[in-house]
Amino acid sequence: MENHNYFRLKTVLYLNYLVHGMGLIILTQNMNALSQSWHTPLATVSYVISGVGIGRLFAYYVLGSLSDKYGRKFFIATGMVMYTIFFIGMAFTTDFRIAYGLAILAGIANSALDSGTYPTFLELKGENGSANILIKAAMSLGEFVLPILIGLNETIKGWYGIIFILVGVILVANLLMLIRLQFPQQTQLRANANQQSAQPVKRSGARVGLFMILSFYGYSSMALMILFTQWITLYGTEVLHMSNMAAHFLLSLYSIGSITGVLLIFVLLRRSINPMKLVAVMNGLSFLLMLMICFSGNSFIVSICSLLFGVTAAGGVMQVGLNVFGSLFPEKKGKITGIFFSFGSLASFTIPIITGMLSQISLSLVLRVDVVIALLSFIFCLIGQHLMLLVDHPAPYEKERRQINRIDYWIIRLLNRRFRLTQEIGIKKLEQQRDVYDPEREQVIMDRIDRQVADTENRQYCKEIYQTIINRSKNNQIHVREKGQIK
Ligand SMILES: O=C(O)C(=O)C[C@]1(C(=O)O)C=C[C@@H](O)C=C1
């Protein structure tokens, strides 16, 4: 029952981010239509778009902290209502001042959604934060689908506002689903119930250090992506003298890399890889790839590196960083999400301004700033890893436990595969009217264990384990026989 509820909860939350992905580009994708409707130049539309950033910057910290106090569901629902007002309002308004207000509202909606959703996913049992990584995939899907919808609508000469309304209606339907769903228990409430004490004071220095490092990482991980996506196409045409098409394709390659990276990181986290190590390795690779992009001078190498850079910089490492951050301050996950993304918004606000100025000197210089950002990100990760050891004080057998986690992962996968094979044997035995029990075959299996396991005591244990497995297989086969189906 609980699993079913959580499955629906996850679906609703991912659908929100699909809509949010659309929200991120719906204004830029409709700039001409909006400027006509508002009777303003394109520059005004661009100014209105910046309102989203302002809303985000100011709302993250406040909403994140409040989400710890008043619960995740309330904030997600509020975010959805605000987003709906944004979409429907944008469709109808003809006044750019109202549009600016709506854009700020969209920024606040974004913060409310993030402040509620990221902590919720961290509070879902047994997820290891991997669910948060898929948020990125849902957003990319939204960003992929929206231009197609707009293109189709333009082909049939439809009114631009219809897409805004359609997205708003999806949100309302999703909100009706959300209201009926239960959320996992919040960490703070759990902690209170168990009367858990806070971290020891003597490690508070390291905790403050970590807090700062991870905040900087919130900035640098976002800056790394923003700078690349903003400038790579121009860098391709102006510096590498690539054709327009090939230069635009650099960004598509980066997006493909990003989605691939999300899937890769999702799988790796499920296999209990150390998240901090993963973030550090990915950032180290981003640094090397940026070096190649800036200094190889070869458009083919730059294309390949853009694809790989999508994996390492935009495959969800930012979200993994946030997961680590949240797990260090379990009672303040909402607040932490707020702070982390405030730094991210600061990057999306400052990087275009800084690089805009630098671009007047040279485009090569602009891209080299990303090399420095990648290096800083990598250094933050290394320092973070070091500080975590001080704060976490991991058990001396933590490394072994991680290895055991990986082994268990494979044992379970292999066991499932074995059960599927014995079920197939069961069906064939039924067709040929053979007995389920095959003592000779079981003896062969036991003899192999005799040969393979040198230690006599372990050998006996292995045999017992195997007998249990075989018994389970036989039960399955008997079930096939009796019911004509697989249990
Ligand atoms: O090999 C078979 O005949 C099977 O049905 C598989 C299996 C097993 O689990 O390995 C199960 C039952 C038999 O008694 C022997 C072996």
SSE arrangement:
Layout: H1 2-29, H2 31-38, H3 42-70, H4 72-92, H5 96-123, H6 130-155, H7 161-179, H8 187-193, H9 204-239, H10 244-270, H11 275-295, H12 299-314, H13 317-328, H14 333-358, H15 363-392, H16 398-431, H17 439-452, H18 456-483
Bound molecules: prephenic acid.
InterPro entries: Chorismate_II_sf, CM_dom_sf, CM_II_prokaryot, MFS, MFS_dom, MFS_trans_sf, MFS_Transporter
Membrane topology: Multi-pass membrane protein
Domain Chorismate mutase: 391-481
CATH superfamily of the largest domain: MFS general substrate transporter like domains
Chain-averaged pLDDT: 87
| Principal-axis shape | globular
Radius of gyration using CA atoms only:
27 Å
**What structural category arises from helix and sheet content?**
mainly alpha
Tell me about the largest β-sheet.
none
Give the end-to-end Cα distance, rounded to a whole number of Å. Answer: 20 Å
Low-confidence stretches: 190-202
> What is the helix/strand order?
HHHHHHHHHHHHHHHHHH
Q: Helix count, per DSSP? A: 18
CATH class of the largest domain: Mainly Alpha
Number of strands: 0
Bound ions, cofactors and other small molecules, one mention each: prephenic acid
Task: Label the CATH architecture of the largest domain.
Answer: Up-down Bundle
Write down the CATH topology of the largest domain: Growth Hormone, Chain: A
Domain unit count: 3
Proportion of beta-strand residues: under 5%
Helix content: over 70%
